[in-house]
Amino acid sequence: MKQIIIIGGSYAGLSALKALVGKLSPSLTSATSVTITLLEPKTGIINLLGLPKSIVDSSFADDIYSPLHQYNMKFDSIRIADKEDGRTDITATKLSLSNQETHSEFLTVNFIQTKCSKLTAKEAHYVDPVSNQPAILKFDYCVLASGRARPDVPFDPISKAHHICNKEDFLKQQRQQQDLIEKANTVTVIGGGALGIETAGELLQQYGKVKKIRLIHPYPRLLPEPVLKNDEFRDKILEQLVKLGCEVLMELRVVAERANGNLKIQSPKGEYEIESELNYWCHSYVNNLEPLSNNLELFEDCLTGKEHLNPKRRCANVNEFLQLAPISDPKNLFEKIYAVGDLVALPILKTSGGAVYMGGLAAGNIAMQILGNSEDLTEFPLSQWPPNMAVVVGTKVTLQVVDGVVVVNDKSLLAMYADYCTSRFGQTINIEFGSKRV
Ligand SMILES: Cc1cc2nc3c(=O)[nH]c(=O)nc-3n(C[C@H](O)[C@H](O)[C@H](O)COP(=O)(O)OP(=O)(O)OC[C@H]3O[C@@H](n4cnc5c(N)ncnc54)[C@H](O)[C@@H]3O)c2cc1C
């Protein structure tokens, strides 16, 4: 019996789970049975792409959440936090245990609502959600897909301050955000990366005529990602923001937020304060690498970023097959631990599509290893990975750079982003978003 664990159930993790079930189920026998366990702190998945829209239109929050029982797959066991905690998702449990798409009797699929706190080469440590006691799960193969954390609410659904565990928590939080926006006259977005641009875009589309919407960015151009080599794209995005009435302040650094919302600014001319009532910090992220960083003795050499200006920007180093690899001794790799999605140290633009792709690729490689074809592992196509990117400014303006060419308002992209790619993503991995079957 082989044990596979997947750490993180978002784009990369869920894609890995679905692909593993699809690839293994037809080939297993009593002699090659497999158990897959998904460890994820939420009893569902949020299509993060729609988060900016869900704070200005809280009804949209419902559309971008898919609870476990809408995953179109059978879980053989589900361990979720108990009722006293106010987090129970009983409906999800009952429905998922008896769910539609079944799999081979030699495959077991389990879900545990938890965060993995530490990995070893063969074990995952976590707190059991039912007993609240530390627990250990042994594994033969592991997919690390724990992604990235943003500064705070509402862009980090599992931030420490506001722990989102189920759909109810999520809808409540997004409603609160909309109430705060309704009350504010000036809303400032801090950081002009993709998240900041899309947040400002949604605020402008919904409230641009009645509120002051401001974007502050510390550099001379938007989108600081070094992998993106196209200033025309950056300039056109700026043009669209300004056209919609955004006050864009470049080359200014926000150093503090006052209790009343005002912002302390640092500029070459000195420090001063500007008025603001509500602020969205979209300036940074940290990769969720606790499972590795809590075992530096074993994994320190697999973490990049020690030399980086910002030590929080660490990534998991992988080889061409997405197996976890030490930097100074790549041949001595962890061939049964895969890292996928936003947290990997690959020089590509990190996207949800890329995470889904990597999850599927790792799943395929694990299936190969289990079914005895370790020689045929698939490589991540790094040299062919296009540096293409799409950004929306509200749902009525899309900008993309495809093979170096900037395209504004491409019809198919506009259609895809009308629901922030929710239906497309749902179809890709066969899960249902929204309240269709609750
Ligand atoms: C607001 C917003 C808008 C975006 N817009 C776009 C866009 O338009 N297009 C695009 O392509 N990309 C966009 N992105 C980026 C895209 O969402 C990411 O590339 C994608 O989420 C990466 O997927 P992932 O599965 O690697 O990680 P994540 O989506 O970050 O998922 C990680 C999962 O792991 C779980 N987790 C974390 N720590 C642990 C742990 N210790 N144990 C167990 N589970 C854990 C988390 O709960 C989460 O479910 C956007 C991101 C945000 C936040």
TrEMBL record:
SUPFAM superfamilies xref list: FAD/NAD(P)-binding domain
Domain FAD/NAD(P)-binding: 3-292
GO molecular function, one term: electron-transferring-flavoprotein dehydrogenase activity
GO CC terms of this entry: cytoplasm
PANTHER family registered for this protein in UniProt: APOPTOSIS-INDUCING FACTOR 1, FERROPTOSIS SUPPRESSOR PROTEIN 1
Family as reported in the entry's similarity comment: Belongs to the FAD-dependent oxidoreductase family.
Name of the featured protein: FAD/NAD(P)-binding domain-containing protein
